[in-house]
Design goal:
Length: 149
């Protein structure tokens, strides 16, 4: 079943369970999916990769918001954002551990024949494509930089 249909069904379950956080979060996901589907130049359908990318973007936005709220001593708002992050992450593929990430990036570096930071762009392109949905972009970039230096 597609992620879009799963989210749609989970909204109904959240309504029945009266789970306000889950319901609001999933509604925002469905809105983002619909905006992507109906955007100018869109094909009218949403692939799984696009769905995962949207969810990852939403997780990043909420983590960033939570960090800002914490800086401003607005703990209640930060906690709300982090609860939404938990809901969103439950629909994302399993994230790689640091060891798994280093092994995967090591393989990509070997395939690309990269030897220094000058090759970081080539490695990042391949790594981002290969590890999409399995690791955050920042974690990939940090690991690539560490392994190439």
């Amino acid at each position: 079943m597609s992620l879009y249909k799963t989210i749609d069904q989970e909204i109904k379950k959240a309504m029945m369970a009266k789970d306000k956080v889950q319901l609001e979060t999933l509604r925002s996901v469905k809105t983002a999916f619909m905006e992507s589907i109906t955007a100018k130049g869109a094909s009218g359908e949403l692939t799984e990769e696009q769905s995962v990318a949207i969810l990852q973007r939403m997780v990043k936005q909420r983590k960033d918001s939570a960090a800002i709220y914490e800086e401003q001593n607005r703990e209640e708002l930060a906690q709300q954002e982090l609860k939404e992050v938990e809901v969103l992450q439950s629909y994302l593929p399993e994230q790689l551990t640091q060891d798994e990430l280093e092994k995967a990036i090591g393989d990509i570096i070997e395939q690309a024949g990269a030897t220094s930071l000058k090759n970081m762009g080539k490695v990042m392109g391949a790594a981002t494509k290969a590890l999409a949905g399995k690791a955050e972009g920042r974690a990939i970039a940090d690991t690539v930089k560490k392994m190439l230096s």
